């Protein structure tokens, strides 16, 4: 299942082994920061993912779990929470 065709959504609870596996297989992840904050899921370790060479996409998720679908606001939010 792991490979370049995989885009794993909501990558919140990945450990070092998971990150290494995803990177090794060329898989990508999709970060939905507002949805994760609204649901209290946690924060993705985007810096660690990028350091492993994993492609990271930004997503809005569904309107019922993220309050808005504005990609510019999501990019802004992703940049702000990356400082935590």
Key features of this structure:
single chain; 84 residues; alpha/beta; three-stranded parallel beta sheet; 5 helices; 3 strands
Can you put this structure into words, describing what you see?
With 84 residues, the protein is of the alpha/beta class. It contains five helices and three strands; from the N terminus they run βαβααβαα. The longest helix is centred in the last third of the chain and has 11 residues. The protein is globular, with a radius of gyration of 12 Å.
Order of helices and strands: EHEHHEHH
- In total, the number of domains comes to 1
Strand content: 5-15%
Radius of gyration: 12 Å
Q: What gross morphology would you assign? A: globular
Order the strands across the largest sheet as they lie in space: 1-2-3
Number of strands: 3
Write the layout of secondary structure elements.
Layout lengths: L6 E3 L6 H10 L2 E4 L1 H7 L6 H6 L3 E4 L4 H4 L4 H11 L3
Parallel strand pairs: 1-2, 2-3
């Amino acid at each position: 299942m792991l490979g370049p065709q995989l885009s794993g959504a909501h990558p919140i609870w990945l450990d070092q082994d998971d990150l290494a596996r995803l990177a090794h297989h060329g898989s990508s992840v999709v970060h939905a920061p507002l949805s994760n904050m609204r649901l209290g899921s946690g924060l993705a370790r985007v810096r660690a993912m990028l350091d492993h060479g994993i492609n990271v996409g930004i997503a809005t998720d569904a309107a019922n779990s993220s309050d808005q679908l504005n990609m510019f606001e999501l990019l802004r939010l992703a940049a702000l929470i990356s400082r935590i």
